[in-house]
Every structure is written in structure tokens, then in C-alpha cells.
């Protein structure tokens, strides 16, 4: 009798747990995160019908047993049509079932049973998938509980220093339920106050129905999905306070998000979007033609948009009106272990340090899950970043997104980003000029201490905000595409390997001094990038002066207490022009100290020489140098120039700043470089992309595709008194310096019809 009662109890408990599954299971994609497998088994509607028969039917009163119906397996065409319809409507009505029956030559009841089987199988597999996450979460909670008990048992009194004996703590279920009820009451009161003062409803109940993933987060949705495999994802959970710890030697300033913790958002919905984004990234990284189209030669892979629309469905809403799509993929070997790259990408400051010319600002708003141990498996965080191209003619892309890390095997990780909107859907600023579709990388450890990195970059942006000179560059993927991320990653890790090497090539300077100088150069290049793109890192005020061209951006800011640059009023001027010569030719000319007197006003027309240089990686142009002008009338100059240069397949950079000789000697001896005042100027070069628009015919090169885009930027101290007023004469002087520099470069390279920006 006891066995019967226990069986009945387990059966009722199992049925109750099935009843808790919501309609999300009915919208669940069979290919979701690789957990579901295509199986024709659920294509047999008669299987389900036969299963309902009584297996105990035997001959009774002389009657023969009932004959079981034959199994009927649908053909591939029927299954494909049923699957397609199921994705759109998992609950067809009678009219829809009749239409499917007529079109697929099946009986109406077969259609009905197929959909029943399909929904049942989906719910079962979803439950199994969730059980794995629940078990992991349970193990985490047990471990945390043990640590907390140990901490309580070993508590020390702050006053007397002896072990503290806490009051007896009751872990009885009844006491825990009372405490839980009290905390719920406090939470409800807090929600009531929030609703009163913010005028919006905060999700508070797990009974709210869950919308389909295609609804995304555009309506401040109240979604609760029973995926508790991530720590702290329940509705109403308290956001973890973030301590933005710098990596060793980090030079990036700490940035606070402009809206952190001011806008309520549904964490469960973010989990759902993260899982869907991870699934899409994995598929896009693995699939080949026709989804990806390979360029000529070793060109990058671009996305076939028509094939993408047929293969994937959007889960963050429709493409905004007027937006253009850019999507590229690149695969390369990188000299580092996979976990090291994962750690870098999951840390906002180290990530921005790794890509200084592409990311002007990055901040982690909230950590929804810190992941499992050192592997960062299931780590999920909410972030905001500003993406840039080094030109005043390309607006900065400020994007809010979630970043999700998943370890798929012992040696394979995937990290995906996808844009979200934390504000109300009625907000006109949502996705102001760009949104990031599932983008990121798949990292695979190889046996030779290298990692194979497959990078996918997929964005939609408002092309009307981009100057026509840069539209071909951005649409081709050279501006923000995968090839640029990979090229920067490889160059930076080569630099890091060079920095960590016990033998850094250079003269008259020890290893500590070389590393200190590289830190100074890193800060110089970062400040230059921030000034070109008008990043919010520095509070720039844009100026509109009558004599300044519309393609020249002039900005100003005041430095009151930053020891890393001169005190006073700083003026920044930048512009971009088309150069009908190759990137490598222009780079070689600008980095050559012997030719510097042909364009640099700081050289006063005198030839310059390199005192020494520190290599940052392979290639002659990847280095940090100290330049000195030739002596005049036997007198030596006390002013030196610190210069950093690099070049790769996606661009080049020449950044320099005048430095005092005594200050640089301190740095070369291994002293602190953070107090060396710098105002960087320089050049950024981007590859030209051949278009059907107006061609710019060069005089030194017959091929119109052999061109590039040159961005020139200056930061000048116009007044050493921060409270002084900026004059129009100062603005015109800096603008004249910018124009003269461009003209001198044209003259030196014999370019007679430079395609300046129109």
C-alpha cells in the first residue's frame, strides 16, 4: 500500500512540475544553442495515437485483440512545412489545420497529433536543459552556504580580537519561511515606492506570461523565464556593486555609466536574449557558403543578407528604417592561450586597452553572472561602450549591450555581444545611430600555444550620419569590421610578447626604462584617439567659427588638475582627406624623421634624427622613438619628440608629442611616466575603398584604387590659464596650422589634385 501511495505522489508531483512550463517552450527553436536535435520521430502522428491505445487489450469473451495502427513517418517535405508553420504558430486552429491537411495530403488529426507531439517534446527537452542549470545553481548555493557558515564560525570581535560567539541561528524551515515572507513584504513596499516615483511598473511576479524571443526588449517587457542557471537573475534581485579594478599597469581612466542603476530592466529577459544571441553566433561562425561570400584573393568574408534572412529570425526587433547593414567574418591564429583572451574580453578596461583606436570608452554597468570559476563559463554582464573610427567625419557609436561568455568544451569558448534597449520603447533615442546584432568571437585553443579566433561582426547603422568619404569604407567592413578587430588583436599581442621579452631591442636604456617609455607612449596614443573622435572620456566643447571649414572639427576643453597634460585651455582640430597614394607610401613618408622637416612646424625646417627606438613588434614601422632636432649654431635643443608608429592591413598610426628632455630622462631610467605632460598630435591612415562615385585621379599613381584616407589631428595649448577666455584668433591659428600641414604633405608627395573632402 505504501508503494502505491508513493507512486501516486511522485506522479502528481511530476504532473505539477509539467504544468509550470510556460508558452516559451512552444516558441522554442529546435536548434536553440545546439541543445535540440532535428528528429523525424516527432513527425509520426500515428505513433502518438497508437500510444493512447490500451496495451492490455487481449481476447475477451472470444473477441480478437484490437489491431494496432501502422506507424506513419512523414516525408521530408511534410516535416519541413510543418516545422516552418510551427515556428510561426505553435497552436494552429481548426481552419489552419484543415489548410495544412489539404496542402500536405495528411489527415486533420495527423496534423493535430503532430503539433501535440512537437510541443510535448519541446517542453520535455527544455525541462531537461533547465534541470542542468538548476543543478549547477544548487551546487553554487551549497558552496556559498558552506563558506558563509565557516565565516560565521570563525568571526573575530573587532574590539577585543577574540573569537565572537554569535547567537544561535535557526535553520528550521518554518523560521526561514517567516524570514522569507518578511523580505518579500519589504521588496513589495520598495516596488510600490518605485512605481509611485518613476511612474512605471517593475516586474514583480513570475506568473507573467513570457513573450516570444522576437519581441526582444523593446517594450520594457516583463518577462520571467525559468532559466536560473545564472547567479542572481531572479526578478527583483539586487544588482551587484561593481568595483572597476584596473589590470596591472592599466592606463585607462575609470568611467562611470551615464545611467547605471537608474533604469529598471528585466534580467530574465536579458538571459533569454543572451542565449539566442549565442546560438546565432555559433551558427554564423560555423556556416560557410552561401551564408558567407569570400572576397577576391584573401579578401574578408561578407554576409549574404538574403541567405541570412532565410536562415535567422530577428529577436531584437525589426531593422530600423534607414539603417544600413555591415557584416563580416575573419579567422586568424593569435599567439596566446584562449583563456587569457577570454579574461581580457570580459574585463571592460582591459578590453578597451586592447583596442584603443576602436573603443574610446567602455564600462560594465552590471554583472548578472560572474560565471563558473576561472573558465568564465556562463558569465553575463551588461555593458556600454563607444566605438570609433579615427576621423571627425564618422560619428561615435554609443551602444548598450550584453556580453555573454560560454565555454563549449575544454578548449573552446564563445563570447557574444548584442545590443539592447534599457529604456522605454517610446524613447526616440533608442538605437540612435547604430545597433549591434549578435557579434563576437569563437576561441579555440591549439596545441602550439596559439588560439584560433573566428571573429564575426554584424551591425546596422544610420548611414546618413556618415560623411560620403567614409561610406564605402564602413559598408565594406574596414571601419568596424572583423578584419580590423583581428588585425588589432594580433598586433597588440605581438607588442605584449615583445614587452614581456627579457631582451627588448634598444640602445642606452635598460629594460625597466623601455617598459616605462612604452607606457607613456600608450597614454599618448590613447589621448590622441580620444581627441580625434570627440569621446565622452574628455569633456570637449565643439566650436563653430566662420573661417573654419565644415569638414574640420574644432573643439576645446580646460585642464585644471590633470598632471598628465599641461594646465590651461586645450584646442583640438582635426580633419580627414583623401590621398591618392598607397597607405604604405604615405606611412613611410610621415614616419621618416629625415623627411619630417618637410611638413612639421616643430622641426623649424631643420632635419631631425632618432636618438633611439624601442620595437613593439615585427616590422620596421612598429616602434616607439625619441626624436631630436639638429643643433643650430652649436647649441643643443632641450625639446625632444616622443613618437609612436604602427601599421597593419587595416590602417596605420603616427602619433607624436613634444616632451621635455629632463622628463624623458626620468622615464628612461624607469621613473613614473604618469606625470609627464603630453599633448599629442598625429595622423591616422585608413585604406581606401574603390567606389563608383567621383574618382580622384592621382599624379603619382595610375591606379585609382591605390588610395587611402588621411586624418590629421592637432592638440595645442592656447592658454596656460584655465580660466582664460578662448579667442577667435587662437582658433584660426590652429586651423591654419592644420591646413598648412596638409598642403605641405601634398607638396612633398607631388600630389597636385588631392581629393579633399567636399
TrEMBL record:
Residues 65-125 form the Homeobox domain. GO terms for molecular function: DNA binding; DNA-binding transcription factor activity, RNA polymerase II-specific; lipid binding. InterPro entries: HD, HD-Zip_IV, HD-Zip_IV_C, Homeobox_CS, Homeodomain-like_sf, START_lipid-bd_dom. Its main location: nucleus. Keywords: Coiled coil, DNA-binding, Homeobox, Nucleus, Transcription, Transcription regulation. Residues 263-498 form the START domain. SUPFAM superfamilies: Bet v1-like, Homeodomain-like. The keyword Repressor does not apply. Belongs to the HD-ZIP homeobox family. Class IV subfamily. This is Homeobox domain-containing protein. It comes from Gossypium tomentosum.
